[in-house]
Amino acid sequence: MIDRSYLLSSAHQLRQLLQLQVGMRRDAEELIRTATLQLDEAALRESVTERALGAVESRLAGLVPPQGSSQDELFSASQDPGSRTARVTVAEAVRTFLGDREEATAGEIVIHVQERRPDTPPGNVHAELSRLKRKGVVIRKALGVYALARKQGGEGV
């Protein structure tokens, strides 16, 4: 009788241990699935970032003047934060670009600003265009087409 009760107790404890181990295995499998998804996402992000970097470096290489020639505006302003030479602001770049022409599309303005300031995202240029429009510095002649607002004497603001 003692052997039977001992064996029943042992079987009950082993069932509980088995259930615990099955749960631990399921948890570990879920962790592996999650880690695999994170790994796949990280690899995709790495690939996209690598392609973007390649595109930016390629574009930048096209902007670098050949050796022996003078540097253009992009490289004349020092990138050193302690330097006294200030970089051109987005607003200044927009005003200068629009001052040289009758009108320009938002895309043309973005390209011009990014040529002078490669680190400027297109969204910042669009935001600056909106701000300059609110201030009356630029006008929107048509959807996506901007011009410098003119004073009565014909000069830009």
Would you mind describing this structure in some detail?
With 157 residues, the chain is mainly alpha-helical. It contains 5 helices and 3 strands, in the order αααβααββ. It has helices at 2-63, 73-76, 90-99, 106-116, 122-135; strands spanning 104-105, 138-142, 145-148. β2 and β3 (145-148) form a beta hairpin. α3 crosses α4 and α4 crosses α5 (122-135). The longest helix is centred in the first third of the chain and has 62 residues, at 2-63. The chain starts with a helix and ends in a 9-residue tail after the last strand. The relative contact order is 0.07.
Poorly predicted runs of 5 or more residues: 66-85
The major pleated sheet works out as: 3 strands, antiparallel
Q: Strand portion, in percent?
A: 5-15%
User: What integer is the average pLDDT?
Assistant: 82
Alpha-beta content class: mainly alpha
- Sheet with the most strands: spatial strand order: 1-3-2
Helix percentage: 55-70%
* Total strands: 3
Q: How much is the radius of gyration in Å? A: 32 Å
Shape: rod-shaped
Distance between the termini: 105 Å
Number of helices: 5
Order of helices and strands: HHHEHHEE
Write the layout of secondary structure elements.
Elements: H1 2-63, H2 73-76, H3 90-99, E1 104-105, H4 106-116, H5 122-135, E2 138-142, E3 145-148
Helix pairs in contact: 3-4, 4-5
Comma- or semicolon-separated keywords:
single chain, 5 helices, 3-stranded antiparallel beta sheet, mainly alpha, 157 residues
Quick structural overview:
This protein is mostly helical. Helix content is 64%, strand content 7%. It contains 5 helices and 3 strands.
